[in-house]
Amino acid sequence: MATTALSYTNLVANDNVTQPAGTTLVAAPTNNMQLANAFPELTVLRVTNTDDDTALTFTVKAGDSPPALAAGQGDLTVSVAFGTAEFIGPFESGRFVQSDGSMIFESTTTTGTVTVLKVARNT
Fold first, then answer.
1. Residue 38 exposed, middle or buried by CB count within 10 Å (0-12, 13-18, 19+)
2. HEC states along 43-108?
3. 23: helix, strand or coil
4. pLDDT by residue for the chain (123 residues), tens digit each?
5. Three-state DSSP class for 39?
6. In the chain, what is the greatest distance between 2 CA atoms, to the nearest angstrom?
7. What SS3 class is residue 40?
8. In whole angstroms, how large is the CA radius of gyration of the chain?
């Protein structure tokens, strides 16, 4: 399985961030996306869909147990309508973190983008 590495765009407390371009989605089951060294409780995803009149399904994969003791609750699946953007998250470490500290995501199509935002802690 090919894996596309994702990285954070850091939100800055008391400041602004220009909307990043995002990473083009990759389609499961042969490909997925991975966020290494994830901070699930500080992670928000922006998923866009540019497909022609077809909703896409975006999945946040359940983690490994351990460390994700609530992984038995399963994956989080979100439908993203054509021409829209969905904000997904923040997430629970106890459900979504993998044993290597990453988070894994899948999409049903490649017609859209994902942007990974890291919420700033108060400084």
1. buried
2. EEEEEEECCCCCCEEEEECCCCCCCCCCHHHCCEEEEECCCCEEEECCCCHHHHCCCCCCEEEEEC
3. strand
4. 689 999 999 998 889 999 999 999 999 888 999 999 999 999 999 999 998 788 999 999 999 978 888 989 999 999 999 999 999 999 999 999 999 999 999 999 999 999 999 998 865
5. coil
6. 43
7. helix
8. 14
Q: Which tokens in the block code for residue 105?
A: 């995501």
Cα–Cα distances (Å) from 105 to 22, 29, 109, in that order, read: 14, 11, 12
Structure tokens, 14: 């008391």
Paired tokens of 19: 């909307």
Q: How many residues does the chain have?
A: 123
Which is nearest to 97 in space by CA: 123, 122, 67, 118?
A: 67
* Per-residue tokens: 35: 């966020």
Rounded to whole angstroms, the Cα distance separating 59 from 70 reads: 16
